[in-house]
Amino acid sequence: MWTYHPELLATPVPRYTSYPTAAEFGDDVGPVDMEEALAAIAPGTVVSLYLHIPYCRDICWYCGCNTGAANRAARLATYVERLEREIALVAQRVTGVRVGRIAFGGGSPNAIPPAAFLRLVESVRTAFDCTDAILSVEVDPRGFDRDWAGAIGRAGVSRVSLGVQTLDPQVQAAIGRVQPSEDIRRTTSLLREAGVGSINFDLMYGLPRQSEQSLRASIVESIAMAPDRLAVFGYAHVPHLVPRQRRIVADGLAGTAERFAQAALAHRLLVDAGYDRVGFDHFARPADALAQAAASGGLRRNFQGFTEDPAEILIGLGASAISDFPDRILQAEKNTGRYGMRIDAGALATCRGLRRSPEDRLRGRAIETILTRGTADLTALDGGADIRIRLTPFERYGLIAWEGSVLRLSEDALPYARVIASKLDAYRQTASARFSHAV
Ligand code: SF4
Q: Of 167, 195, 198, 279, which has the fewest beta carbons less than 10 angstroms from its beta carbon?
């Protein structure tokens, strides 16, 4: 089993859902950069779409997402209209692209009425060539009902991710997300009836009042509900960045040693239950597409975490949505009011991001292969000697090995994968307080 080396986990590191990370985004890019990137997409290219719904029925105290309370129907309706307008604006600017995946995330997509969701799906299918596109939706089980399940079935959604986090009522109370197990069970069965083939549960460790016993109980109960995939994330307590986390009593939070033990426990329970490990925090049934991508070397990492999506271009739609192109990352205005004003004016809503240099692209690819395949070829990278020096402590513990300039992580290096990846991060060679625990 994994060995705990506290000194290797002492420095906070990013999750590397992109490289460079969002911490490097600046405001020196805007709509012109998005116009240019869209116009440069070659006809026939397969792209992915992400639609952000920045509303939730109830706001959880731990949540770092760009979301607000879905307490005014008129506000939701206006947002959906603007999203439809943005879909048309973007579609006008691309020629002959094909959409391979359409993902709805948030927030909670099911904070909007099911009819509004179906309208959005129809708008996307009318505006783009979506033949055979895979449709996925994030769902908040609280309040999920038969009408929503019906919409999911009618739209042909094949993948759903449920926010579960913990099934322990005491921990739920401590994080402001009260969600009886029955909600999860009912939602899962409604989704199966609606024909959803792949259901994911998001779980968390390192939550306030969460012990190993409590985590074990949540995982065992989750496994009994037979999700196809699970992701087990470490809670990041960063109230200086996420003000709503100030409601969480920090005294009850696990330290690094306890977090490490909880991550190891989750890993062991899920692998013993027959799930394949995918990356460092995802798990999937061997027959699931994500496990198969991991087994065949096709696993990728993007803003949604580990994915089997091979598209090189992701177009984000909605407030705060991120678009990812090989040479740039572009984020839309976060504030829904200002986002709406830009869209109403017929403009694209891009306001932050960065341009990737050739060196960024090389390092980004190496970081991605460390996290997805446990290996990276550093031949073409500048500063290879410095990287080797920074990785010496990991080599000493047998967590990595070198074959020429190819770096290989051992199976025991899994909890250190992000820290190892951070040694290739040219923007992050000094300790930073902007990120949470390394495990
Ligand atoms: S439901 Fe999900 S997105 Fe909404 S506040 Fe809770 S954790 Fe955040």
A: 195
